[in-house]
Amino acid sequence: MLRSALALWAVALTARLAAQADLVVLNARIYTADPNRPLAEALAVRDGRLVFVGSARGALALAGPRTQRLDAAGRTVIPGMVDAHAHLLGLGQALRTVDLVGTRSFDEVIARVRAQAARTPAGEWVRGRGWDQNDWPDTRFPTHEALSRAVPDHPVYLTRVDGHAAVVNAKALALAGVTAATPDPSGGRIIRDAAGAPTGVLVDSATSLVGRLIAAPSRAELRARTLAAIAEANRWGLTGIHDAGVDLAGIAVYGELAREGHFDLRDYVMVRGDDSTIAASVRRGPQQGLYDGRLWLRAIKLVADGALGSRGAALLEPYADEPSHNGLLLQEPGRIRRVAVQALRSGFQLNVHAIGDRANRLVLDAFEAALREVPVADHRFRVEHAQILHHDDIPRFAQLDVIPSMQGSHQSSDMYWVPNRIGWARALGTYAWRSLLQSGVVIPNGSDFPVEAVNPLISFHAFVTRQDGAGFPAGGWFPAQRTTREEALLSVTLWPAYAAFMEQDAGSLTAGKYADFVVLTRDIMTVPPEEILEATVVLTVLGGRVVYRRDQE
Known about the structure:
Helix content: 25-40%
CATH architecture of the largest domain: Alpha-Beta Barrel
Shape: globular
Mean pLDDT: 95
Number of strands: 24
Strand order of the largest sheet: 8-15-16-18-19-20-21
Low-confidence stretches: 8-15
Structural class: alpha/beta
CATH superfamily of the largest domain: Metal-dependent hydrolases
CATH topology of the largest domain: TIM Barrel
CATH class of the largest domain: Alpha Beta
Number of domains: 4
């Protein structure tokens, strides 16, 4: 009898222990991004998922002797933030090359490159990223002569901030055999001087004329870049990204790290849009939530045009500051339609980079044609960037169920020179967040890092204010296109989850979803707008496990 009673007690004790939370967070102001419970003061986690979000009483009811208790000390907690358009390996490379972000002149670029060259054996490549001539007193593209004189013995390849142009030195041009006689490749431009000689600046597909000479990184280097980039993302409160254009080698390294338990990010991978990568991905089929939700492989990325800063964005009318040019199409529209059909038939999402109004129209046309051929209700096709839209095309996103994936920080970075590029009339249709939201779509927000800084609060702030970090311009740039703070929060949490078919598992602090959340020093939902960017990340938690802690830096 006693033995039976002890056995029953042991079973009951085991059940109680199994029902206990692993972690409870108390004394917090929690913005859940869940309309059914928008505010809470506590949450409980078990086995990497939320089991309760609500009152302290409810959370403590799930606590036991083994439960870790975290007192948030009244701080703000939000869902783990997700960057809906980023480049993880690009960030990893940028962290390991010459940082040119924020340079105020080409002379400063040269000084940083010369310093790196002094530490590099002669003949080896010197690489850098982040220059933007729009930030310099002379906003024209640079020419290579001063760079070539300063660094004559190393081939130099310096990527523009947007990733759609590069400046190279004379040694790199010579190694690649690029001369005045070299024709512009399809979808690219060799910037030339008055005599037709290359100036050293290569735009869009022309960058490959030199870039193809740079050896692909080793597997060890890809691992190192990936781990460095993940750590940087976690530091800024990111628990997930949508990774825009990854090749098979990168995907293989991601899988290797995830299997080893070293991939502290939920990565919604868009596979690179070359024929062989698409074919391999379609043969494998869509894959979701691999390695405890670390990898999601069900999207394809194409690029329709270039970037506005390098005049590669494809426009319906010519550039205001270069009337003989209206941008570059990097993808034949018929191919976008064909890949869209292939994606619809194989269960993949198609996400297409389009910045200019001409490119956006062509992409929407291709999507519409594909959907007539293969009608699918819940396809969630996306346009990545959607920066410049003709007013006739804004309602088409909702009509076609297409998601505009946009980056708030692009607006706050580009606003100073956009009117010079395209004129004030077309600038009215740029970064048209309110117009798109009113049409009935959602807007997943991002940074396009390393094009912009990793910090997702920069894009949150831009959505709310249409200003830069210094509060310029007063009242905001085309302020009618601002969002509410509630919408801005959704844009970095639940809307990216929806745009990645992940809304059942992530995006809000809701029981049953992943326990991904961030603790902040300030309440970004109530502080004055000018104080939003003063908020810093205290903790980043992925699946109930701390992956970044500020006090351990």
